[in-house]
Amino acid sequence: MDPKKVLALLVLGFLLVPKRQTAQDNQNQSSNQGSNQGSNQSPYTSIFNGSSSYLNTQNPRGIRNNNPGNIKISPSAWQGKVPINNNTDGVFEQFELYKWGVRAMVKLLSNYLNSGRDTIEKILDSYSGGTDSYKNYVANRTGWSRNQQLSNTKENLRKLTRALAYFENGVEAVDDITFNHAYDLI
């Protein structure tokens, strides 16, 4: 075959293949999403009331479990909780619907604030063991210092819920619309 035709086919093939995302592209996309604290919808808003699209195995574990906060299995009787004998994860709670997982996260954070765990430091020490990277991310995302005392307000819960859900899943897992629906269920 003519070398010019081979080169033309290679170039055409290169142009038709979708661009593969690099780690830098993913980091840039994540940092853009992480800094977006507005009301843009998360891709998971559509599953809030029960779409089964969350079962896609490419979704983060917290999304697949309808548990964007990655709340660990406990004896707590969360509303909408999948019974332990039906839980297929083995580590994290699973919820029947996404809204119940977001509600559980909001309720847990509210309980923390009401019980004196009212700083990022104290919340994350209880919530996840509190790594410095997690605490720093939440502080940067919310605009609060790690030891700033927080009151139990809807706005503070919204900021905490969104920041923790993003850190747990690596994607915007709870947007403002989803948060508001879950908050109204408390």
Give a description of the structure.
The protein is an all-alpha fold. The protein has one domain (3-184). It has helices at 3-16, 23-35, 61-64, 98-114, 120-127, 132-142, 154-169, 176-184. Helix 4 crosses helix 7 (154-169), helix 6 (132-142) crosses helix 7 (154-169) and helix 7 (154-169) packs across helix 8.
Low-confidence stretches: 6-39
Strand count, sense and barrel status of the largest sheet are: none
**Which structural category do the helix and sheet elements fall into?**
mainly alpha
Radius of gyration, whole Å: 20 Å
> How far is it from the N-terminal to the C-terminal residue, by CA?
70 Å
Number of domains: 1
The portion of residues forming beta strands comes to under 5%
**What count of helical segments does DSSP give?**
8
Helix coverage percent of residues? 40-55%
Task: Give a short summary of the structure.
By secondary structure, this protein is mainly α. The chain has helices at residues 3-16, 23-35, 61-64, 98-114, 120-127, 132-142, 154-169, 176-184.
Ordered list of secondary-structure elements with their pairings:
Layout: H1 3-16, H2 23-35, H3 61-64, H4 98-114, H5 120-127, H6 132-142, H7 154-169, H8 176-184
Helix pairs in contact: 4-7, 4-8, 6-7, 7-8
Question: Which key features would you list for this structure?
Answer:
186 residues, 49% helix
